[in-house]
Amino acid sequence: MEENKSSSNRYLVGCLTGFAIGTFVAMLVVVIVQLVMRVPYNLNSNDNADISDLTQKMQLIISEIDKTYIDEIDEEEMEDAVYGAILESLDDPYSCYYNEEELTSMLDDVAGTYCGIGVSVNKDAKTQDVVVTNVFKSGSAHEAGIKAGDKILCIDGNDVKGQSLDMVVSWVKGEEGTEVTVKVDRDGKKIDFIMNRKMIEVDTVYYEMLEDNIGYIQLKEFDVISITQFSEAVDDLNSQGMEKIIVDVRDNPGGRMDVVCDIVNTFLEKDKLILYTEDKYGDRVEQYTDKDGKLIGIPLVVLVNENSASASEVFSGVIKDYDAGMIVGKTTFGKGVVQKLVRLSDGTALKLTYSKYYTPAGEEIHGKGIEPVEEVELPGDKKSPTLLEENEKDTQLEKAIELLK
Predict the structure, then answer these.
(1) Class level of CATH domain 205-404
(2) d(CA 321, CA 331)
(3) What sign does the dihedral 37-39-44-49 (CA atoms) show?
(4) DSSP symbols for 152-185
(5) Cβ atoms of 305 and 297 closer than 8 Å
(6) Which CATH superfamily includes the segment(s) 96-201?
(7) Which pLDDT tens digit goes with each residue over 236-248?
(8) For residue range 184-206, what is the model confidence (pLDDT) as tens digits?
(9) 191 with 146: CB under 8 angstroms?
(10) Residue 99 has what DSSP assignment?
(11) Do 317 and 369 form a contact (C-beta atoms < 8 A)?
(12) Contact (Cβ atoms closer than 8 angstroms) between residue 315 and residue 298
């Protein structure tokens, strides 16, 4: 009797699950068909046949999962995966789909405060490895011993290979006090770090006065909070008698375009072209300075390396084109595309690459980067100053100081 009862229960659960999955499939197919039908092209009979094939195949796949797959199915996760796969098919590491939770996390990040472990990351242009570029002292990653240059392999068992940077970052973030395990590769050695997430206010600017009244400002990212932090650094250095300045954007993965436009304005006169963008239709949008900057004409060196990306390249490209300073270091990353956030009515969003940007002189950055005027290697051909040993000199910084003396 007990065996028959168990079989009946399994049959009932299977029927109920099948009904739920069937309903879900129908709804999902309707949504996708509606999305496809909104494409602004005239659909011919072949297009309609393609849509029919799409819906039938989706029904077949999910029906087979329902009948065969051994574990329970998370319908919300499946739905997110479908939408995410559409964006992944673009083969663009910068375009992605955000569910509500991921969207909130991303917006917190660009605002300069978030709950996580306190690192910034970038993708290696050649290997596509996810590499730690900065470790913030206020975060648990610094306490645990994660270092810049570590390659992230897994987060809570999730392989980061093939994932967008935004997805990797969303896995690191979470509720305050929750635990996260990050596996890294450090010079071929695999290390697991177990940390608790905490609230991070990103310190995007570090500054100090060097010899000969040379001010030094390191810009770690271009977040909303960076405008205030950079302005305060400039004011303080000016009060100390700054006569020359080094701006260090090495290992800076980028950030918001409006922020870098505001900061680079510090060194330029009003109505100077900062950059322009062009979309696939050839429409051009230009960004200009809106005021005279505080430091027009000050002797300036900008430090760059292979991890200087996106907004960092805008900054160094503008300075180079206007001959407002000298660029020292290594050729930059080469990310010259712009994304826009498209919010959907259900609280989710898409981030889509929609244009390329160009320097004032019309130079395309994407896939090329900004070449320094003075190319300088670090000791041992190291890629980042954060990887230098205590007895090794920062030859790029030394060259910047030498040029300003």
Answers:
(1) alpha beta
(2) 15
(3) negative
(4) EEEETTEE-TT--HHHHHHHH--STT-EEEEEEE
(5) no
(6) PDZ domain (2.30.42.10)
(7) 999 999 999 999 9
(8) 999 999 999 999 999 887 789 99
(9) no
(10) -
(11) no
(12) no
Burial class (CB in 10 A: 0-12, 13-18, 19+), 72: exposed
Count Cβ atoms below 10 Å from residue 300 Cβ, excluding itself.
21
Q: Six-digit token pair at 184?
A: 């890294």
- Between helix 45-68 and helix 2-37 the angle, nearest 10°, is 160
CB atoms within 10 A of CB 194: 10
Q: Name the residue ranges covered by the structural domains of the chain.
A: 2-73, 96-201, 205-404
Sign of the CA dihedral with 199 first, then 134, 219, and 253 last:
negative
Q: Hey, CA dihedral for 263, 266, 271, 277, is it positive or negative?
A: negative
C-alpha to C-alpha distance for 147 and 132, rounded to whole angstroms? 7
Confidence of residue 66 (pLDDT cuts 50, 70, 90): confident
Q: Tokens 């699950």: give the residue.
A: 17
Of the candidates 219, 240, 254, 259, which has an alpha carbon nearest to the alpha carbon of residue 332? 254
Residue type present at position 320: K
Report how far residue 142's alpha carbon sits from residue 380's, in angstroms, rounded to the nearest whole number.
25
Q: Above 70 in pLDDT, residue 318? A: yes
Confidence (pLDDT) at 218: 98
Q: Give the pLDDT confidence of 148-184 residue by residue, as tens digits.
A: 899 999 999 999 998 888 889 889 988 899 999 999 9
Please, what sign has the CA dihedral across residues 289, 290, 293, 294?
Answer: negative
Q: Give the 3-state secondary structure percentages of the chain, helix then strand then coil, rounded to 5.
A: 40, 25, 35
Radius of gyration from C-alpha coordinates of the chain = 25
Question: If you search the block for the tokens 């949008």, which residue do you land on?
Answer: 285
161, burial (CB in 10 Å: exposed 0-12, middle 13-18, buried 19+): exposed
Cα distances (Å, whole numbers) of residue 295 to 39, 116, 144, 273, 302? 49, 36, 39, 17, 14
Length of the chain, in residues:
405
Which H helix or E strand runs over 201? strand 198-201
Say if residues 161 and 97 touch (Cβ distance below 8 Å). no
Q: Determine the angle formed by the axes of helices 257-264 and 311-321, rounding to 10 degrees.
A: 30
